[in-house]
DNA sequence: GCTCTGACGCCAT
DNA sequence: CATGGCGCCAGAG
């Protein structure tokens, strides 16, 4: 019995998100694709909303395909998401991650799918 | 049991 | 180049 039960779709998303290194970011689509559901990027973001009560899931490190903090609105209503990213060394400009490609963490590569 | 919505992504216009 | 609509899967009403 592991600390994380990967019985459902949520747990799978949490497992990947939890492996995102500090100062790095990934996209919903990248995680979705890694899970085998490339077209279900929405499910990933949706799962994240349910992960708000989880400290193991750094949802602030997950952004959309454009590197924009789309979920910022769900992050307490303030710019908390951007603050968290900048605190980790991620440059963010107007909810847009700078050098997004440089800090992009792809599970398909890092986890070697 | 059916319908609507939803932290996205890509194609069409 | 910008805007809109459809598709995907799963939970909640």
Helix content: 25-40%
Mean pLDDT: 88
Biggest sheet character: 2 strands, parallel
Give the count of structural domains: 1
Structural class: mainly alpha
The CATH architecture comes to Orthogonal Bundle
Order of helices and strands: HEHHEHEEHH
Cα-atom radius of gyration = 13 Å
- Give the DSSP E fraction (strand runs of 2 or more residues): 5-15%
- At the first level of CATH, the class is Mainly Alpha
- CATH H-level name... which superfamily? Winged helix-like DNA-binding domain superfamily/Winged helix DNA-binding domain
Number of DSSP strands?
4
Unreliable segments (pLDDT under 50, ≥5 consecutive)? none
Shape: globular
What does this structure look like?
The chain is mainly alpha-helical and 113 residues long. The chain has one domain (9-103): Arc Repressor Mutant, subunit A, CATH 1.10.10. The protein is 38% helix and 7% strand. The chain has helices spanning 9-17, 28-35, 41-50, 80-87, 100-103, 107-110, and strands at residues 26-27, 62-63, 92-93, 96-97. Strands 1-2 form a two-stranded parallel sheet. A two-stranded antiparallel sheet has the order 3-4. β3 (92-93) and β4 form a beta hairpin. The protein binds a DNA duplex (13 and 13 nucleotides) through α2, α3 and β2. This is Methylated-DNA-protein-cysteine methyltransferase related protein. InterPro entries: ATL_DNA_repair, MethylDNA_cys_MeTrfase_DNA-bd, MethylDNA_cys_MeTrfase_DNAb, WH-like_DNA-bd_sf. Pfam families: DNA_binding_1. One of its GO terms (biological process) is methylation.
């Amino acid at each position: 019995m592991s600390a994380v039960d990967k019985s459902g779709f949520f747990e799978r998303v949490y497992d990947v998100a939890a492996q995102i290194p500090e100062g790095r970011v990934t996209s919903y689509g990248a995680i979705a694709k890694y899970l085998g559901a490339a077209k279900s990027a929405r499910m990933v973001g949706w799962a994240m909303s349910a992960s708000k009560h989880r400290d193991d899931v750094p949802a602030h490190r997950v952004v959309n395909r454009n590197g924009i903090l789309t979920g910022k609105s769900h992050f307490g209503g303030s710019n908390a998401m951007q603050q968290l990213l900048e605190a980790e060394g991620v440059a963010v400009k107007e909810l847009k991650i700078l050098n997004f490609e440089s800090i992009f963490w792809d599970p398909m590569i890092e986890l070697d799918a």
